[in-house]
Design brief:
By secondary structure, this protein is of the alpha/beta class. It is built from 15 helices and 16 strands. Strands 5, 6, 7, 8, 9, 10, 11, 12 and 13 form a 9-stranded parallel β-sheet that branches. It has a 7-stranded mixed β-sheet with strand order 3-2-1-4-14-15-16. Helix 3 (about 115-130) crosses helix 4 (about 145-155) and helix 12 (about 335-350) packs across helix 15 (about 405-415). Bound molecules: guanine (GUN) and zinc ion. Zinc ion binds near residues 235, 273, 325 and 328. Its EC number is 3.5.4.3. This is Guanine deaminase. Its cofactor is Zn(2+).
C-alpha cells in the first residue's frame, strides 16, 4: 500500500447486486454515475460516486486524474487459470486428455526450476494486468517452487491472488507425480508460508479425479475440514472421454461429483472448472453446498468440450463464475471471456447481457469466491483494484461507440469488441500497475 491519496474522474460502473437476466438491470443493482469520481487512499477506496455530490467532501488541492470519457470498473477477476500453461496456449488439434498428455504435462515439467517459475510468474502477471485482471484463482504446477514463485511475484506487486500446488499422485509423468502424503505435506508447508499473508490465499488444488488416488483426495478433504478459510479448485465433467475414465477408475461412485463429495471437497469455497456434462440433480448438490462452477467458454470451444448450460445452473441457484482457463482457454482477457460466453449462450438460446457479463467479472466472481468483503465493488473500504476502460481506444471502437445510444449498448460493444487496447490503466492495491502505451 501507499500513503498517497488520489482522485480519478470518469464514468463509474460498480454493481451492488446481480442485475438479473433482463435487458435492463434490476432496480438497485447498478447506478453508473456518468460524471463520477473515485477517491483512493492507502490502497483502499475512500469514496466513490457522483462528482458534483462528492465535490464538497473532496480534499482541496489534491491532483485529479482526469479520465472523463472513460469508464472505471472494479478489477476483473478470473476464477480459473493455469499460469504454468501460458506458453502452450493455442496448441493445435486435441481434446482434453490428449492435449494434457501431448502439451500440458511436458510443459508443466519445466516448473521444477525456480528460475523458470519466477520468469513465467512475472510474464503471466504482466499479461493479466495488461487485460485488466487484478485477481485470479490460479493452478501452479506440482512443484512447490512454482507456488513460491507465483505468490512471491504477486506479493511484490501487492495483488490479491489465490493459488495452489497441483496434487497428482497417479496417471501423470514421473516428474509431476506426488508421493501421496508428500504432496499433502508440501501443500501444508505452502499454506503455512502463504495463506492469509497480505492479500494472498491458498487454494487446495487436486488436478481432477483421474490423477489423484482416493487416499490423496481424502487427505485433501481433511486439510479443508480443519481450516475452512482455505479455498479448493479442481476440474469437473469437462469432456466425455474424461467422464468415461472417471467411471472406470471409481466404479463404486454414483457419478463424477460423488467422487469429490466422498472426500469432503465440495464446500462454499470450492470452484469446479467446467461442469458441462452434469444433470440437474448434480447441479442441485453443488448449489446446496454453496460451491461454484467456473464457466470457461474460450477453453470449452477450443478443446471442443461442449456448450456450458449457464441457465440450468442459475435456475438451481448454483453460482457460476467466469474464467479464462488459459492454456486451454485462448485468451486471458476477461472481455474475451465474455465474448466467448455470449457466443456459447447464443448457441444455447441463452444470450448474455453486458450487465450480466460485467457483473460476473467483478462482483459476481468476488462473491462466488468469498472475496466480496475486499474486492469486486467501487465502494468505501474496498481495496483499490480497478480498471480504466477506454470505449474509444481504437478508431473502429470510437466509431462504433459513438453510435451507441445508451450506456448498455456501449458496454455490450466493449464486451464484444474490446481487448487489451481497451484497457487504458489497471490499478491494484492503490498502485498503478499498467498503463497502455
Ligand atoms: N483437466 C485436468 N487438468 C486440466 C487442465 O490443465 N486444463 C483443463 N482445461 N482441464 C483439465
Ligand atoms: Zn483448467
Amino acid at each position: 500500500t501507499t500513503n498517497d491519496s488520489r482522485l480519478l474522474r470518469a464514468e463509474l460502473l460498480s454493481f451492488d447486486a446481480d442485475p438479473g437476466d433482463e435487458d435492463t438491470p434490476a432496480p438497485g443493482s447498478v447506478t453508473p454515475p456518468p460524471d463520477g469520481v473515485l477517491w483512493i487512499e492507502n490502497g483502499r477506496i475512500r469514496a466513490s460516486g457522483d462528482y458534483a455530490t462528492l465535490a464538497p467532501e473532496l480534499p482541496p488541492g489534491l491532483e485529479v486524474i482526469d479520465h472523463r470519457g472513460k469508464l472505471i470498473t472494479p478489477g476483473f477477476i478470473d476464477s480459473h487459470v493455469h499460469y504454468v500453461q501460458l506458453e502452450i496456449m493455442a496448441s493445435y488439434g486435441r481434446q482434453l486428455l490428449d492435449w494434457l498428455n501431448d502439451y500440458t504435462f511436458p510443459e508443466e515439467l519445466r516448473f521444477a526450476s525456480r528460475e523458470h517459475a519466477d520468469a513465467l510468474s512475472e510474464a503471466f502477471l504482466d499479461e493479466m494486468l495488461k487485460v485488466g485482471t487484478t485477481t485470479a484463482q490460479v493452478f501452479c504446477s506440482s512443484h512447490p517452487v512454482s507456488v513460491d514463485a507465483f505468490f512471491a511475484a504477486s506479493q511484490r506487486r501487492g495483488l490479491c491472488m489465490l493459488a495452489g500446488k497441483v496434487l497428482m499422485d497417479r496417471h501423470a509423468p514421473e516428474g509431476l507425480t506426488d508421493d501421496t502424503l508428500g504432496g499433502i505435506r508440501d501443500s501444508e508447508r505452502l499454506i503455512g508460508d502463504w495463506h492469509g499473508k497480505g492479500r494472498l490465499g491458498y487454494s487446495l488444488t487436486p488436478r481432477f479425479a483421474p490423477t489423484s488416488t482416493r487416499a490423496q483426495l481424502d487427505a485433501t478433504g481433511a486439510i479443508l475440514r480443519n481450516d475452512p478459510s482455505l479455498w479448493l479448485q479442481t476440474h469437473l465433467a469437462e469432456n466425455t472421454g474424461e467422464l468415461d475414465w472417471v467411471a472406470e477408475l471409481f466404479p463404486g461412485s454414483r457419478d463424477y461429483l460423488a467422487v469429490y463429495e466422498a472426500s469432503g471437497l465440495v464446500g462454499p469455497r470450492s470452484t469446479f472448472a467446467h461442469g458441462i456434462h452434469l444433470d440437474q440433480e448434480m447441479r442441485a448438490r453443488l448449489a446446496e453446498r454453496g460451491a461454484n462452477l467456473a464457466f470457461c467458454p474460450s477453453s470449452n470451444l477450443f478443446l471442443g468440450s461442449g456448450l456450458f448450460d449457464r441457465q440450468a445452473a442459475r435456475e438451481m441457484g448454483l453460482g457460476v463464475t467466469f474464467a479464462s482457463d488459459v492454456g486451454g482457454g485462448t485468451d486471458l482477457s476477461g472481455l474475451a471471456t465474455l465474448k466467448a460466453a455470449y457466443q456459447v449462450g447464443q448457441l444455447r438460446g441463452q444470450p448474455l447481457t453486458a450487465w450480466q457479463g460485467f457483473h460476473g467479472l467483478t462482483l459476481g466472481n468476488a462473491r462466488a469466491l468469498s472475496l466480496s468483503d475486499r474486492i469486486g465493488r467501487l465502494a468505501p473500504g474496498m481495496d483499490a483494484d480497478f480498471v480504466v476502460l477506454d470505449p474509444a481506444a481504437t478508431p473502429l471502437l470510437a466509431r462504433r461507440t459513438a453510435r451507441c445510444r445508451t450506456f448498455g449498448e456501449t458496454l455490450f460493444a466493449l464486451m464484444m469488441l474490446g481487448d487489451d487496447r481497451s484497457v487504458a490503466e489497471t490499478w491494484a492495491g492503490g498502485r498503478l500497475q499498467h498503463r497502455r502505451s
